């Protein structure tokens, strides 16, 4: 096994919590998410503070789902898209549990879950891993002020107002975290910040191939292989790169799962909270229910900043992979 | 032991590399750093790209110091202060080793080293952990354009142009990584972005106390207890909080170590690269040389962003702690 992949013998996912904003509540997964916000400010003064509130709710929800009190959580691992991870860190100021901030753009959730697994393996810890994003906080930071009302291009994704968190601990449960592969940064030279799918598909394929080799698997062993938020455009590119009928059959994408096509989201959902909410609110429950036995999640992140973009840099990307499997209990 | 502290039985620090910019080269540690830049742009087109170059040099240097080729590194764990960690991620695009990005502001280095230890413990991995900052890239992002030439206040720290990285692997060496405590976010209500020492001192004290309890230690067992970059102001506050002569005797601060008082840096050095360079270029070599046997490093980070500051938020802080000890070999 590659030393860039960690295999976990004994790490269970024992709690999960998914939150959606107003638009996400109207999507196909809205009815099964744990909590839907009725308005996207949620009583806060700023969009950024609302994102932080969502982070606290997700961490608390996952802990409670595991039967823990918030104070029982030894380590929170979390990430978001805002500069200096302010929603993760301001949430940590409130929940007061020791916190590790991670950043891999929209791949942060898989990094957080993998590190939570690493923390728990062989120990006695209780960890919560999560990620969150707020459409209105993220868009005004990365692209244009919302009030500007700019025309979105056909390849643009919709940054989700969503959060998801998993509670992870050593032991056996209905869902096991089985492996974690750390991604390499891959840059296909894409320069369009309105087309993340094209920028991220090669990184997804690089990490998925490396993970498959590391676990000595084949695509047919998986019930589903989810990418984070390649959307319609990036998923088509990924399947072209894979050029494998079995892969195309099992592949699905969290960004495509979060909204209906008629919700005007163009390429699909994106944002750190998108893959987090789909994993916590859809994938883990489906494994718990016995519908799926073995699922890969390759969370994908575009690693540009407004500064790097304005300096003429292309958009590098990364994908971190986690493998989930039905447990025996 | 608290489950927010991980104890490592068998993780060695086998390589280290410290880089300083022009001003850092003129400081007291300049002569012992591995590499000093002659100009702060280092042939790059932007300050941000220069910071990325420093990251690549630090990762390569630590790997080579361990006797590894760059391609032997299984995982790089790194962090910086720039939005979306662009220097860490653009460096990863170049060095092509699997990379985990972390963010805890100037506490990122200790988080990176702790996670590298976690990755290595019980495995066969080769990890490099590092952090880097560039004065001119960071200052224009967080405060004012450099060209504005604003007057720095007496409590302001000087963001270092510096980088440091450690190579970590399972086994025994001259320096062992012994423990890692994850910090809580502590907010004393400070609102002055020109006074990081006041904002961060309570977080440092919180994490140091929690670490000491977790390892069942006392301050007298340590040759040095370094904080990251509390500087003159924050160190005085910390020693007031500790109210313990033994602590005050063993306490030192990386931010105070990097420059001479006559270098006009006011409170001392700061920035993700400051503690990283001081640990990699000064602390680890002193342990290797047998001068010190047991050293704590509490890297401290102020978790504000320009957005949170402009929205009227106070400045929360965190400190992550790593414990280094002389090995037997």
Whole-number mean pLDDT of chain A = 96
Q: Helicity of chain A, in percent?
A: 25-40%
Q: How does the major sheet of chain A shape up?
A: 12 strands, mixed
Tally of discrete structural domains of chain A: 2
CATH homolog superfamily of the largest domain in chain A: Stage V sporulation protein AD
Label the overall shape of chain A. globular
What is the H-and-E element order of chain A? EEHEHEHEHEHEEEHEHHEHEHEHE
Please state the second-level CATH architecture of the largest domain in chain A.
3-Layer(aba) Sandwich
What is the SS-derived class of chain A? alpha/beta
- Poorly predicted runs of chain A: none
Oligomeric status of the shown chains? homodimer
Protein chains sharing the most extensive interface? A-B, 59 and 59 residues
Query: What name is given to the CATH topology of the largest domain in chain A?
Result: Peroxisomal Thiolase, Chain A, domain 1
**Number of β-strand runs of chain A:** 14
- Report the radius of gyration of chain A as a whole number of Å: 18 Å
Number of helices of chain A: 11
Q: Kindly, what is the distance between the CA atoms of the first and last residues of chain A, rounded to a whole number of angstroms? A: 27 Å
User: Beta fraction of the residues of chain A?
Assistant: 15-25%
By CATH reckoning, the class of the largest domain in chain A would read: Alpha Beta
Kindly describe this structure.
The structure is a homodimer of 329-residue chains. Chain A is α/β, with parallel strands linked by helices and 329 residues long. Chain A is built from 11 helices and 14 strands. In chain A, strands 1, 2, 3, 4, 5, 6, 8, 9, 10, 11, 13 and 14 form a 12-stranded mixed β-sheet that branches. A two-stranded parallel ribbon of chain A has the order 7-12. The interface between A and B is large, with 59 and 59 residues.
